[in-house]
Amino acid sequence: MKLKPGFIFVTSLLFLVTSRTELSEGHSFGVDYKNNCFLKDGAPFQYISGSIHYSRIPRVYWKDRLLKMYMAGLNAIQTYVPWNYHEPTPGIYNFSGDRDLEHFLDLANQTGLLVILRPGPYICAEWEMGGLPAWLLHKPNIILRSADPDYLQAVDSWLAVLLPKMKPWLYSNGGNIISVQVENEYGSYFACDYNYLRHLHTLFQLFLEDTFLFTTDGNTDSEMACGTLEGLYATIDFGTDTNITKAFQRQRRFEPSGPLVNSEFYTGWLDHWGDNHAQVGLEKVSQMLDDMLTLGASVNMYMFEGGTNFGYWNGADYDTGFRPVVTSYDYDAPLSEAGDPTDKLLAIKNVISKFRAVPEGPMPPATPKYAYGFVTLKKVGNITALLDTLSPQGPLRSQYPLTFEEIKQYYGYVLYRTKLPRTLEDKTPLISPLNGVHDRGYVLVNGVFQGLLERETILVLNVTGKEGDTLDILVENMGRVNFGPYINDLKGLVSNLYLGQDILSDWLIYSLDIDGAIATGWPHAQPQHTDPTASSQDCKGPVFYMGTLEPTGLAWDTFLKLRGWTKGQVWINGVNLGRYWPQKGPQQTMYVPGPLLSTSQPNNITVLELEEVPSDPRVLFMDRAQLNRSTERS
Ligand SMILES: *[C@@H]1O[C@H](CO)[C@@H](O)[C@H](O)[C@H]1NC(C)=O
Ligand SMILES: *[C@@H]1O[C@H](CO)[C@@H](O)[C@H](O)[C@H]1NC(C)=O
Ligand SMILES: *[C@@H]1O[C@H](CO)[C@@H](O)[C@H](O)[C@H]1NC(C)=O
Ligand SMILES: *[C@@H]1O[C@H](CO)[C@@H](O)[C@H](O)[C@H]1NC(C)=O
Ligand SMILES: *[C@@H]1O[C@H](CO)[C@@H](O)[C@H](O)[C@H]1NC(C)=O
Ligand SMILES: *[C@@H]1O[C@H](CO)[C@@H](O)[C@H](O)[C@H]1NC(C)=O
Fold this sequence. Notes:
Strand 1 (29-32) and strand 2 (37-40) form a beta hairpin. Helix 2 packs parallel to helix 4 and helix 9 packs parallel to helix 10 (343-353). This protein starts with 6 loop residues before the first helix and ends in a 12-residue tail after the last strand. It has 634 residues and is α+β, with helices and mostly antiparallel strands. The longest helix is centred in the N-terminal third of the chain and has 18 residues, at 149-166. It contains twelve helices and 34 strands. One 2-acetamido-2-deoxy-beta-D-glucopyranose is lined by residues 94, 96-99.
């Protein structure tokens, strides 16, 4: 049995301490253990906070969303810092543009919002690999989220960059960060490695001095036992299905005095592909918020503004199977994916107004939306015809397949090519016996689409062909697992494929830089290269389409619907909007932030359709979102 070291010791010790953080200039934040509350500048303090992830919102809209949160009566926000967003390759950091965390903190500070920072290093968040960089998997057996030296070394270098940047933003230093979470729901991870938590605790103390540090865990004893540590204040998270009294009793068992805190009160929930759209009623949310605030608890609403998993940033769950998260992170939150106030927001504001003075003045309105209408797309070419453009450096050769991580392409799509070793007169099974296609493989023989191999669901596909025919498998990373024990989620062909009895070998592996090609103007800069062929077989399998939305003089938000298209990825003016998969749903439209659009130049739309293009290859720009399959209209 694992005992939490020092638990009994620390709880008795804490009674002796009233305020943990006493600072100069009246800027202090800590805990009053006698009166079971937070103390801010020496006065009792209750936070009413909402989660917003800067990485899911274009920078130009940060201020708009923050102001709406402030006007709803919140006094704090909570944000994650996704490590993989800021350190794309080891030692190379990006804190600019949409990744400018300090600018986000500055805007929150200007708006009058305190910040509860969750720098991980693991964050879950339904984000690719829970925020961990995929390059950690260069050591495929690394024990992530543990005291494994390879993992700790990477964590140490990252936190030595991130945490010093946070220093001026700490409340005690005149900034707005009142508290910092260590790790994230660590108790729900199998490793239960206190040495890891202690290591993080030491690092956070080193860089953040006496800032109030806390942990957050799910509402069970085992999670609380593995996720909490002496010296880190234990908080809990739960949603509307939970009995508040029982949940806070559990927090009390681990934190006998101090403020009650729900660090993630779920205002809604996420969608995976194939789910029904999750919705949580506003009556339930506002009643429970009321009850928790009445108890004097500090509450963070997760999410308050969900935003979008642009590009390849969605994560995946692995529970009943591999379940990738959809592109929209609307979350049925009080502010919609596009940042619009909802009835839930107004209900929450009403509740908050019973507990603290909400700011006077009008709620900023929804940003304007525009239905730009249909755009007909034309074919650029199929994936085999475009390999030179998308993989300018050419293929790597390997006897057996290499993973995405081994070829250092972490996201998107990779093409694996070999030749049929013999003539297949009869249908012959192409098999992934170890379930090694992560996550979807689009199979072609001599460029002709054969069908799919898919993680866990399609492990065999019959093919025919002649000896020497080209076998191509375009493999899609659908998003790395972000929760649970299976986060070492390698992508690509992660084990051998068989053709009947034979192991396939002698692969050419094409790393595809689709985003790079699009960033340099392809395919719009060479429109003469569009492919007029439209043979019936060629409308199946991976293919690029393009089109232009003529400037209308407006750059308003809009929602892109790919009705009749099957599954793929969309870029507008070089920005990767994310994945679409209307057949699977529930998400039917993709959020297009207005500032992406040009009012003076043609707007360039690029689509990678993976399976089948509709006979009428149009896309539709609408003025409202459809996130729910069942509300689908024309
Ligand atoms: C850093 O991130 C921003 C925002 O995503 C991006 O525009 C920029 O190109 C990145 N910088 C580098 C050097 O990759
Ligand atoms: C945060 O805002 C306060 C109040 O406007 C200001 O005094 C302080 O300098 C700001 N802090 C930072 C780090 O910008
Ligand atoms: C919640 O649990 C408490 C303590 O077990 C119980 O008294 C109360 O009735 C429960 N509340 C609801 C709404 O079920
Ligand atoms: C492959 O073809 C064989 C022979 O026609 C057939 O028995 C089998 O069911 C097929 N398998 C799949 C997965 O289509
Ligand atoms: C669309 O592509 C064309 C051709 O490369 C380019 O001239 C134009 O600037 C692009 N439009 C936008 C809005 O970037
Ligand atoms: C793919 O495109 C090339 C170039 O246009 C064409 O020759 C080839 O037939 C296409 N493949 C299929 C399966 O249609």
